[in-house]
DNA sequence: TATATATTTAGACAAATGTCTAAATATTTT
DNA sequence: AAAATATTTAGACATTTGTCTAAATATATA
């Protein structure tokens, strides 16, 4: 739970998740959406991956990232314990 | 959304929310549940309050904190946009 | 094989964060 | 009014975080 909330606690990372919501994308495509250096985006992707919120797959010289919505379910369940 | 995720990105603060889930409590009662100084807990309470996740009310010399579950609804809605 | 393209790793640095102790403020009790 | 109790504010400090540039690694293409 710690890794998930840590990953979600950054606007750029949440925006990356939004991007991946529609379709999978390469690291470069993701980086192109931000005014942030590629190494920084790579680092954000790593944090999202540590939280299992995204997965990656190497395709030739590209690395394709996809969202892993099953982890969102964990957050959902946690939130639901607070609904009276 | 930023303030909410920031507030949730700490195990102590999440545990405070768990405590308040059952009933409202004074700052001192909350602090007694942790091996952390009262000023630190006060600071955590402030961050939770900034996110509107809790409310406070002064009762005599005590300050009583309560959870505000309506804000959890916002997180819930955000999460749900990822469920396919 | 040399060069270009895609991505990550390494290391540095400023800003933000969580913690503490000491002091200040507010309220109640003696 | 003085002392006790409850909480917050202020300031310090070590750790974590997000960012950058430069360099390393991996793959594809000329």
UniProtKB/TrEMBL annotation, chains A, B:
PANTHER family according to UniProt: ARSENICAL RESISTANCE OPERON REPRESSOR ARSR-RELATED (PTHR43132)
Source organism of this protein record: Flavobacterium xinjiangense
Molecular function (Gene Ontology), one example: DNA binding
Domain HTH arsR-type, chain residue ranges per copy: 1-84
Gene3D superfamilies cross-referenced by the UniProt entry: Winged helix-like DNA-binding domain superfamily/Winged helix DNA-binding domain (1.10.10.10)
InterPro entries given in the database record: ArsR-like_HTH (IPR011991), HTH_ArsR_DNA-bd_dom (IPR001845), Metal_resp_trans_reg (IPR051011), SdpR-like_repress (IPR047796), WH-like_DNA-bd_sf (IPR036388), WH_DNA-bd_sf (IPR036390)
NCBIfam families: HTH_metalloreg (NF033788), repress_SdpR (NF033789)
Pfam family of the protein (one): HTH_5
The keyword 4Fe-4S is assigned to this record: no
Domain of life: Bacteria
Protein name: DNA-binding transcriptional regulator, ArsR family
Keyword terms of this UniProt record: DNA-binding, Transcription, Transcription regulation
